Q: What sequence folds into this?
């Protein structure tokens, strides 16, 4: 038996650019009321936004309160907000560690904790966490980032076990190299090396990740729970 589609608002954190922006647009195009949460309070055209800093519990709570008052309860959470501070381990400062783990891991947990209130009452909801292929492969110079993205797997699966019996699913998508502003800044040599390691021989598109996330939020995905779904052109096969 399929669960009904969530009735309420979809919140996409970090939805002002890249994968988050494409996801917000895909959900909205599919008829789902959507709000973007971003530190700047900006969003794609046609998508309402709230200011949200996921590293602050107060900011997260205030943003959810604003969404509930103005748009309705959050029934879909896409935890996408994140940052990178890449450097070799011996040069990595405590601030580099704390900032990345707060933004990428603890921020997602804060959002799940706050979103769960209404989802549990409604006995229905969807949560999708945006991890990365580096959770399994590792990445030199990204110890902090890889640790945070790996942590999302354990956090997401734990919440999936806690809330699955209440009609709430929690899944994790793990993108590989996607054509975004960040990857476009790579040198030609680095881009060539990366492409050589991807079996499909190309970067992914943000729309492809967004479509996967949108599917996980649909009634057709109601029996998918606690899954880690790679979307990486085969880069992470075997992990």
A:
């Amino acid at each position: 038996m399929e669960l009904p589609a969530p009735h309420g608002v979809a919140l996409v954190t970090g939805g002002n650019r890249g994968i988050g922006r494409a996801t917000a647009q895909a959900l909205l195009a599919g008829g789902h009321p959507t709000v973007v949460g971003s530190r700047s309070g900006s969003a794609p055209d046609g998508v309402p936004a709230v200011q949200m800093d996921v590293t602050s519990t107060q900011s997260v709570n205030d943003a959810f309160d604003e969404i509930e008052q103005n748009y309705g309860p959050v029934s879909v959470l896409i935890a996408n907000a994140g940052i990178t501070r890449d450097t070799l381990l011996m040069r990595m400062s405590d601030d580099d560690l704390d900032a990345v783990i707060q933004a990428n891991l603890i921020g997602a947990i804060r959002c799940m904790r706050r979103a769960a209130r209404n989802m549990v009452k409604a006995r229905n909801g969807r949560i999708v966490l945006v991890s990365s292929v580096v959770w399994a492969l590792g990445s030199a110079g990204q110890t902090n980032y890889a640790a945070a993205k790996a942590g999302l797997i354990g956090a997401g699966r734990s919440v999936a076990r806690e809330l699955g019996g209440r009609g709430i699913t929690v899944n994790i998508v793990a993108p590989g190299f996607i054509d975004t502003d960040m990857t476009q800044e790579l040198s030609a040599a680095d881009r060539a090396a990366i492409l050589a390691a991807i079996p499909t021989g190309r970067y992914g598109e943000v729309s492809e990740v967004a479509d996967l996330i949108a599917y996980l939020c649909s009634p057709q995905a109601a029996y998918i729970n606690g899954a880690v779904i790679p979307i990486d052109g085969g880069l992470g096969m075997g992990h």
Q: What stands out?
A: The radius of gyration is 17 Å. The domain at 9-231 is CATH 3.40.50.720 (Rossmann fold). The mean pLDDT is 94.
